[in-house]
Design brief:
The chain is α/β, with parallel strands linked by helices and about 300 residues long. The chain is about 40% helix and about 15% strand. The protein has 11 helices and 10 strands.
């Protein structure tokens, strides 16, 4: 793995699409700190964080020295009364105009935030699977890779749901090490058994005890994120080194996006706060790249 394939994400600075998700840092600071830790690419973050106009967005990122990767877009995929392609058409056009390459879909429940679950019947599942394949095909026609992101608080969260996607459609997955572990999927095992279905990777390390509380429903996702569920890479239980080495051996050539979701109570002092965790994660990945091999 090369650092040139590692990107950042504004959620590592607490910038999130969920209303009321803590203090939201301004783009100038987030982009500057991305560069400060040695990253040269980023996902967009939520709507409204960067300029709405895709050319302005691209110019802002280029001026900061950052390549656009793409972004996370929650979409209701299972509703037979609505076709998400109509709403996604301008998003796809904006991604292309901004120079991005990856559309990261999440199977939104329709609720606000990620603290509730939704159970689908067979008809709704069939609708979801066929819809995500149609979106992936339309995105590919525009030169974009659409991937489906298993995510806490969405329809595709737990291990049986991930398997249902793998068995029931052809869409590529975003392998998010933290969300998968919280949903009961071993991310390293998924990397080993379904490497050909991994199109994009979100790397976050996670405290397994806190993630287990989310999975068991004894604590909300938001509360556990605020309580430090996500850790700098190498300081949690997600087996990041094994995931990366497994994917690299399998020929994975896509992005590794650093994501350590945080909830901020207020603006951290200059040089402190989320940037310290991101810097630690970058150093961890550099050690994976440049350090000694398994035999010393």
């Amino acid at each position: 793995m090369e650092l040139a394939r590692v990107a950042g994400a504004p959620i590592s600075w607490g910038v999130c699409e969920v209303p009321g998700w803590g203090y939201q840092l301004e783009p100038e600071r987030v982009l500057a700190e991305l560069i400060e830790v040695g990253l040269t690419a980023t996902e967009f973050g939520p709507a409204g964080f960067l300029p709405k106009d895709p050319l302005e967005r691209a110019a802002l990122l280029a001026g900061a020295g950052l390549r656009p990767v793409g972004g996370f877009v929650p979409v209701v995929l299972h509703d037979p009364g609505a076709d998400p392609l109509a709403a996604l058409a301008p998003v796809l056009a904006d991604f292309v105009a901004a120079g991005a390459g990856v559309l990261v879909l999440a199977a939104d429940t329709g609720a606000v935030g990620y603290d509730q679950r939704a159970e689908l019947d067979a008809a709704a599942w069939n609708r979801l699977l066929s819809t995500v394949d149609r979106i992936a095909a339309v995105a590919a026609d525009s030169g974009l890779l659409a991937v489906l992101h298993p995510h806490v608080g969405t329809v595709v969260e737990r291990a049986p749901e991930v398997r249902r996607v793998l068995d029931g459609c052809g869409v590529q997955l975003c392998l998010d090490t933290g969300h998968l572990l919280a949903g009961g999927t071993d991310p390293a095992a998924l990397a080993a058994t379904a490497a050909d279905r991994i199109g994009h990777v979100h790397l976050k390390d996670v405290d397994a005890a806190r993630a287990a509380r989310v999975g068991a429903g004894t604590a909300t996702y938001t509360a556990m994120v605020a309580d430090g569920m996500y850790r700098p890479l190498g300081q949690g239980d997600a087996g990041i080194a094994t995931v990366v080495s497994t994917l690299e051996r399998a020929g994975y050539g896509g992005w590794y996006v650093l994501e350590q979701d945080v909830v901020l109570a207020g603006p951290p002092p200059p040089g402190a706060g989320p940037v310290t965790a991101v810097r630690s994660s970058v150093d961890f990945l550099l050690d994976l790249t440049t350090g000694p091999g398994p035999n010393g």
